[in-house]
Amino acid sequence: MSMAGGQSAVTAVGPGLLVGRYDHAMDPKKRLTVPAGWRDLMGAPAYVYVFPDPHAKCLNLIPPAEMEGRLEKLRARALFDKTLGPALRRIGENAEQVMLDVQGRIRIGDRLLAFAQLGGTVAMIGSMNRIQLWSPAVMPEAEAIDQAALAEACEALEF
Predict the structure, then answer these.
(1) Could you tell me the pTM of the whole model?
(2) What CATH number is given for 9-156 in this structure?
């Protein structure tokens, strides 16, 4: 696997907790390799879901187990619930299910790559229950730990 900037901070902490940062260069076919440690934490899935973030110019790579838990809540609702239909359609048309090959590579569609301005190097950031994919042009590489921002994050999550 190729790493940019000499960073290899993928860390497995507890079952299914995706943390760390991995800067990875897309290959010529626009594929990204999901780090082996993260694949193991996700249960070595055959596929993952990719969603554009509703609040930032990045993509969210979501493990099947995370999605299945959320889908169970939807299954309790009526199949043609008119209040959910437009929301489900909007999410469905803007998401992808992508297969992992035997080397752990995924190929995200060009439309989603363009949304997040991904090309060349991609910052893959563990976000506990998902992996966020960022363009370094949008989210520059962190050089030092921002303790004030970390304190705000801990407070927001009630850590």
Answers:
(1) 0.82
(2) 3.40.1550.20
